[in-house]
């Protein structure tokens, strides 16, 4: 028997096995390449040199915890801001004082910002203070190093304070050297290159061998270390997450305190914060898109409870504590004012009579609503802000009792009344300009000219929230130019962040 066929069969069997293995090998190769491609992109952080100790430690901790590389580039705050302006690259900017963050915001370089800690200037000198330096005037009889005001935050702060004192020009002319960072000044004093220098108190604590001299004018000058998210960041959500971690009271903030900084009271830490917003139902068309965008950018989840403000405030009085409240009128905000920080008025709204298209009943004024054949719907006078305002107005006109005879529906939300009108269950309703904005093709509106026909919508951050800074950023989103467009399209009149 010729063995060749058998050998050929064995070969084909082995060959087939190889062919079967090939797709698996290819799949494994593609998976490996895919994993390599999914390696997290590093965060590029520009950090003021004087803030290096805590930021570096927090960054390394963050890397170990989340596997996100953090690249730190140090320099003077002004120098770093100049680099950002030129390169248009990076994710975060940690400035020695928030004036550089404000400049960055004005120049369109910085978006959100989070305060991290506070510092104030001090004089440092050689160990034991052998030259007897006790006042600012004493610096004029010794050699002194100052920071360049254009490059470093300590230099800018020193210039600002001493210009008010009238002594900047003299000290500037006397200075032996101007340095680009606060650490350079401390090192010069340590090495004996100069007798003294002006640095941050937190920097001085990193050089315990040097003597520290405090003067009243510096003690009164407190600057805030602040991190800003750069508008050029290609990963703003991850950048914001690290910024939140830096400032969180149970993450980065204690490390700032350990390094000698006066740490601020940051938000609680959560990878994905869960926040609750109570909002009057009428506001939904104006805020829904803004809330979704805020969720995506911040990496948080927002549970928004829409309802009549009477219902919402009743829930608060029984113990519920949302992180923020957006009220349909100041009246209801005032009833829970003890639970919130200072409200800001964002928009206002106006009562109108809404009727079917073409106004078949010929309604022109509130008096027409008293006709017995007109089926009227009103917002609930206790459960909604709109109803409360309408009730006060109708009482002022002396027609509430008479109008109640025609009342067919009383609802805590304007949307329900609009639907009842569109289906023909009602002939007329009193609702808001915003209720009409989305149904102008189906309903007509008659403005109500009365001093009580207007209501104002305030937003406030809850005193008990774990995320006070985040809720303040949400406030900024709600009063932004983009938010204004949405509110105005929804029928509201813009006020914009007015106390």
What do these coordinates show?
With 499 residues, the chain is α/β, with parallel strands linked by helices. The chain folds into 3 domains: 117 residues, Periplasmic binding protein-like II (D-Maltodextrin-Binding Protein, domain 2, 3-Layer(aba) Sandwich), CATH 3.40.190.10; 100 residues, D-Maltodextrin-Binding Protein, domain 2 (3-Layer(aba) Sandwich), CATH 3.40.190.10; 225 residues, D-Maltodextrin-Binding Protein, domain 2 (3-Layer(aba) Sandwich), CATH 3.40.190. Helix content is 42%, strand content 24%. The chain is built from 20 helices and 21 strands. The strands form 3 sheets. Strands 12, 13, 14, 15, 16, 17, 18, 19, 20 and 21 form a 10-stranded mixed β-sheet that branches. It has a 6-stranded mixed β-sheet with strand order 2-1-3-10-4-11. α2 packs antiparallel against α11 and α12 runs antiparallel to α20.
Question: Which structural traits does this protein have?
Answer:
single chain, 499 residues, alpha/beta, D-Maltodextrin-Binding Protein, domain 2, 3 domains, ten-stranded mixed β-sheet, six-stranded mixed β-sheet, 21 strands, elongated, disordered N terminus
Tell me the CATH topology of the largest domain. Answer: D-Maltodextrin-Binding Protein, domain 2
Major pleated sheet? 10 strands, mixed
CATH class of the largest domain: Alpha Beta
Q: Helical stretch count?
A: 20
Named at the architecture level, the CATH assignment of the largest domain is 3-Layer(aba) Sandwich
Strand content: 15-25%
Number of domains: 3
Radius of gyration: 32 Å
Q: Gap between N and C termini, in Å?
A: 103 Å
What's the overall average pLDDT, rounded?
91
